[in-house]
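Anyone up for a design puzzle?
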């Protein structure tokens, strides 16, 4: 859902001036993506928009975030910790040194495309999120192609990514991670009107029903993927 009052304004900081993104990038809609005030781009504003409707859900959740970008605030959660490469809890997503069920929600935005074995990373995040926990994954850019292309190495010419995800991302990861379920939540960036998808994974389908219930009420596009 788009808040009509926020079109042309950054929904995170209220800024109204925008510039090009990383490496001179324009949004898929041709608009300028980067807020000149808070540096947010499309995906940050979409995450902020989605999570602004999840505050009640988050209040009793323990969250772990990989590579935080400052959008999620620790006061939204019962507990919040993060892993930042080389700085704090520098965890390997394919081998997370935490017990089963240490958190309720594991969040990563634009991390999994840098990981050699993404299904193993998802399985690890699901393990840390426990039997009823939820794993949030965003990656570039499943709305732009149908099928994931994985070239099998961190390509320096492609921002060290192992793959470009397609619209099959959630289904493909679930197929390779037995016992997992997935729902995709489509958000529209209020500034550029570009879409993006947050995939929520869980071992427990009821947990996906709970996290999407407030979003469905707000008319976000929620699609059961697997
Ligand atoms: Zn901003």
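Challenge accepted. My sequence:
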């Amino acid at each position: 859902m788009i808040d009509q009052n926020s079109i042309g304004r950054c929904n995170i900081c209220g800024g109204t001036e925008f510039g090009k993104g990383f490496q001179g990038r324009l949004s898929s809609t041709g608009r300028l993506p980067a807020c000149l005030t808070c540096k947010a781009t499309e995906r940050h504003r979409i995450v902020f928009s989605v999570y602004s409707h999840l505050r009640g859900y988050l209040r009793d959740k323990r969250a772990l975030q990989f590579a935080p970008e400052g959008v999620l605030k620790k006061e939204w959660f019962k507990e919040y910790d993060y892993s930042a490469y080389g700085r704090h809890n520098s965890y390997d997503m394919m081998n997370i040194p935490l017990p089963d069920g240490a958190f309720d929600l594991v969040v990563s935005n634009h991390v999994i495309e840098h990981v050699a074995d993404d299904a193993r990373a998802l399985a690890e995040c699901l393990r840390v999120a426990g039997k009823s926990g939820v794993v949030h994954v965003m990656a570039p850019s499943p709305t732009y192609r149908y099928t994931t292309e994985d070239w099998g190495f961190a390509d320096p010419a492609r921002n060290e990514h192992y793959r470009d995800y397609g619209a099959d991302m959630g289904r493909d990861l679930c197929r390779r991670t037995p016992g997992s379920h997935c729902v995709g939540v489509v958000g529209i960036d209020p500034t550029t009107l570009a879409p993006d998808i947050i995939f929520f994974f869980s071992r427990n389908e009821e947990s996906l029903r709970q996290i999407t219930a407030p979003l469905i009420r707000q008319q976000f596009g929620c699609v059961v993927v697997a």
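A detail worth pointing out: DSSP finds five helices and eleven strands in the chain.
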